Amino acid sequence: MKKNYLTTIFISLTLIFITFTLICYPHVALQGSKRGLNIWWEIVFPSLLPFFILSDLLICFGIVNFIGVLLEPLMKPLFKVPGVGGFVWAMGMASGFPAGAKISTNLYKDGELTKVEAERLISFTNSSNPLFIFAAVSVGFFNNRHLGILFALSHYISNAIVGLIMRFYHSNETMKYRHTRGQHKENRLIRAFRVLHMKRTNEKRPVGKILGDAIVTSIQTLLMIGGFIITFSVLNKLLFEIGFITFFSHFIEGIFSFFSFHKDLAPPFVSGLFEITLGSQLISEVTQSSLLQQVMITSVLLGFGGLSIHAQVASIISEAGLRFKPYFFGRIIQAILSPILIVIFWRLLNFNELSSEHIHSTIPTFNFFEDTIPHMLSNSLSNYGPIFTLISLYVYIIILLIKILKKKKEPQA
After folding, report:
1. Residues 93-152: pLDDT tens digits?
2. Would you put residue 62 in left (φ > 0), alpha (ψ -120 to 50) or beta?
3. Where is the Nucleoside transporter/FeoB GTPase Gate domain (predicted)?
4. CA 105, 69, 216: angle at the middle one, nearest 5?
5. How far apart are CA 121 and CA 88, in angstroms?
6. Which DSSP state fits 46?
7. For the chain, how big is the Rg over CA atoms in Å?
């Protein structure tokens, strides 16, 4: 009982303090809101919405079940999850945070995963997408296109290792029994088609209703994600302004000095614990440290994900009653593994010869990399992302209005 009272007091005092700080520094709150809104408006919404809608449609029409039957011989022995986990992993890797959590939660609600299987999947299927790693971090922040390979190798391999470790999470639980007797003798491709057909015929909603529901639920999730991004962007700015990040950085400096890292990396690292984009950018601007140290600390942030993403994942999985601890444990493991892999690949690929590209000069960020796919994709999101977001929100409002009008007519009929 006393613990509950203390929790209530702590939450109340924290909220009062944040409110008071917002009143004292309105300009900082405005800057943070603009920055968070721009990230969501230009990049997050247009890059995630197609994947969210597509994943919902693939689940409804049984294509995920089809892929699951084919991938079960790989996913079951390695990660102790059903074959649909391969689809979740691929979609999470392609679209980035927090797609893996959303798709895993949907499959759990749909009965394709047990609770433990869903929690295992969520722990290692959330990752940064290639566009963010190659275009934003390696080229946009570090001015070094070769670093994208290094970041990607360490990030995705460490993610896979997390999956291998998490197979032991609740290892005593048997996997959900999905097939009837004698199916093991059936050709796997034929069985996959039969499962796909069964799933499609069991879906009673018309195609238009399925598409409309997929759009509505996807946009609702992205609106929630946008709220978290803006909130943590404002919080990050406020913590900088009141000196909290500088104060906390003094403790991190002691840890960094123990591992021979430059102390100037501590403040951006603390900032990155809240929001990885800003943290990665600030780390790339620390000219006093070596490039290897900057890359290692950035890889830690990419592996951990930042509290903003943690809050997004927690919000998504809490609706289905899934536990957050496995995901958080997986992020800690990856944050430890990523810099170790950075050092290994740095030496194997001889990245010292490429470090001369890391130049903090007046050369525009993307000039030397302007003809590449990551840059073109990044430019497209910046130029057309807001337009796509606006159109999608208009469609969302129209679908909601149609649903409201239909509900009003139903009682009269």
Report:
1. 877 888 889 889 988 988 888 999 999 999 998 888 887 888 778 877 888 878 888 999
2. left
3. 44-141, 222-322
4. 35
5. 8
6. H
7. 23
Question: Among candidates 354, 361, 410, 381, which has minimal Cα distance to 45?
Answer: 381
> What CA–CA distance (Å, rounded) separates 214 from 155?
30
pLDDT tens-digit series, residues 150-170: 999 999 999 999 999 998 887
Q: Give the integer Cα–Cα distance in Å for 39 and 379.
A: 13
Specify whether the CB–CB gap between 39 and 229 falls below 8 A. Answer: yes
The pTM for the full model equals 0.80
330: which residues sit within 8 A by CB, 6+ positions away? 122, 123, 124, 162, 166
pLDDT of 378 reads 60
How many alpha carbons lie under 13 Å from residue 131 in its C-beta half-sphere?
19
The answer to whether the beta carbons of residues 221 and 40 sit under 8 Å apart is no
DSSP three-state, residue 275 = coil
Degrees (nearest 5) of the Cα angle 296, 299, 304? Answer: 130
For residue 250, give every residue at least 6 positions away whose Cβ sits within 8 Å of its Cβ, in sequence order, or none.
Answer: 266
Torsion (CA) 343, 346, 347, 350 in degrees, nearest 10:
-170
CB of 305 closer than 8 Å to CB of 132: no
The pair of three-digit structure tokens given for residue 287, joined into one six-digit string: 């000219």
Q: Is the four-CA dihedral 105, 111, 117, 121 of positive or negative sign?
A: negative
Q: Which pLDDT does position 207 carry in this prediction?
A: 84
Q: How far apart are CA 143 and CA 147, in angstroms?
A: 9
Which tokens go with 196?
A: 């796909």
Instruction: Please state the length of the chain.
Output: 413
DSSP code of residue 349? T
Among 52-66, 100-114, 185-199, 252-266, the minimum mean pLDDT is found in 185-199
Alpha-carbon distance of 84 to 63, in angstroms, equals: 10
Beta strands in 332-408 (DSSP E): none
Check pLDDT > 90 for residue 22. no
CA distance 38 to 129: 18
Q: How far apart are CA 341 and CA 161, in angstroms?
A: 11
